[in-house]
Predict the 3D structure of the following.
Amino acid sequence: MPLTIATWNINSVRLRQDLVARLAAERAPDVICLQETKCPNASFPSKAFEKLGYTHIAINGQKGYHGVAVLSRRPMKDVVARPFCDMGDSRHIAVDVEARGGRSVRIHNFYVPAGGDEPDPGINPKFAHKLAFLDEMIDWFGTETEAVAPTDGAIVLGDLNIAPLEDDVWSHKQLLRVVSHTPVETQRLEQVRRALDWVDVVRRDIPPPEKLYTWWSYRAKDWDAADKGRRLDHVWLSNGFSDACDRVEVLREARGWERPSDHVPIIVRLDV
């Protein structure tokens, strides 16, 4: 059986656990990776997800902010929840999920800092933190290759909070000075990707010039009509493993669900 994986910035897992249940009911992914869970580990609604069949759960949370989690129908084991930038933030967790023939797939679930409003690290500590976080990813991927991407295959996914391509935003020209699409961020993200030659399977399967978004602001009165989105969420596969991905879906309609997150899920299917 193929392995299906969903990634979703849920923007408070306790507030939106019913939406996770809807995703499970309608798409039945084997693994659901969540970001911005906004709750400590002890308060995570594990029992609700176990009832849905996700009996294997890994959590790296904190009160009120950030937080990542992995829900799986398949056996898995925690590998690491790596701290970044000595900030005490819960922004990463890695797990090994069981695949066929005794193999495993390593999943790195990331929530990269948003970076605040002003794209100047000299006056905006949040933006400086974002760039430092990306630099640490570059260094980690470049120096601990086998730890990050074992030979069975690895995935980096989550809310990376950067829309790297011109067609990943509603207006390249108007967003060049807006955090998430500035050249310094898009160049850093490309350095992260190149550090282990990760393959952006979403844009491999849905290539430019097609516009593609995974986030729409809550500020828009009619997000769908305005369609001023950005592709902030990503799925990358390790080089040599990317051929295992034979389907990609961006679930745009989830932005219109009741009390939605401002992000939508991405679902990939792997023949492993």
Summary: The longest strand covers residues 104-111. The mean pLDDT is 97.
